[in-house]
Amino acid sequence: MPETILTARTDRVLTITLNRPEALNALSSTMMREVVEAVTTADADPGIGAVVITGSERAFAAGADIKEMVGLGLADVLEQDLAAAWQALDLIRTPLVAAVAGYALGGGCELAMLCDVLVAAEDARFGQPEITLATIPGIGGSQRLTRAIGKAKAMDLVLTGRMMDAAEAERSGLVSRVVPADQLAEVAAEVAATIASMSRPVTHLAKAAVNRAFETPLSEGVRFERTAFHATFALEDRVEGMRAFTEKRPPAFRHR
Ligand code: CAA
């Protein structure tokens, strides 16, 4: 039984709720292990088409667990390869939806950025305040934030430690939707259910194609996309999708 997360399954969507309210969902090593394990298990389950990761009303997550790190020295962090296990989320094919209310700071912001679709409540606040602790982001924040919102804003956040509100996060391209706090769970569930209603292997290809944009020059990314696009023509779901369109009926995908 996990200690730091709650999980709930509805049809084809798994929802993972970070659950350390006493620590504003600080990402302890136990939580890292439990989140990674739950997401990895879901990714291997053909019955799951999308995963929602969320926190509480007050905090998505206020960062890596500072109390766990305070006594560590360089030899410890090198030995543990501190925070490296989060990297497993980068290999997940299933689309991940982050539903963010309250604080998403440090590792919390980085966990949200490891997700594919970010939905924020109006009261969400994002930041990389590690500099105020005399350290720097360690779960990809300096890289993913810069790619998401550009050098100027990323430098501002990473060097001053200030938080940005949901409106600024949407304006900057970090999140795709901002909704009233009381609608966050519903909207995130709808987004996830919509993704999960598509052909699962095609969502994997689509996610991989968009992610390629972060890793390769344009010409290589476009070549990757075309190969993935062509690959969809080998799937019965692609035949069904196009046939259903021409027959003016909803598609009945086999792989969903
Ligand atoms: N680690 C451990 N405990 C944390 C925590 C964290 N990142 N963030 C909050 N908590 C704990 C607090 O210590 C407090 O516990 P106690 O009641 O036992 O003292 C409890 O959660 C509530 O927090 P506050 O009393 O501080 O609540 P607040 O409303 O006054 O402030 C906050 C909220 C502004 C988010 C503040 O808690 C805060 O600044 N938290 C730390 C944010 C931060 O620096 N995050 C980066 C962490 S480093 C990192 O993430 C590195 C990396 O990339 C891998």
Small molecules in complex: acetoacetyl-coenzyme A
Approximate shape: globular
The second-level CATH architecture of the largest domain is Alpha-Beta Complex
Low-confidence stretches: none
Helix/strand structural class: alpha/beta
What is the name of the CATH topology of the largest domain?
2-enoyl-CoA Hydratase, Chain A, domain 1
Through-space gap between termini:
28 Å
Strand order of the largest sheet: 1-2-3-5-7-10
Please name the fourth-level CATH homologous superfamily of the largest domain. 2-enoyl-CoA Hydratase, Chain A, domain 1
Bin the helical content. Answer: 40-55%
What do the pLDDT scores average to? Answer: 97
Q: Count the helices. How many?
A: 11
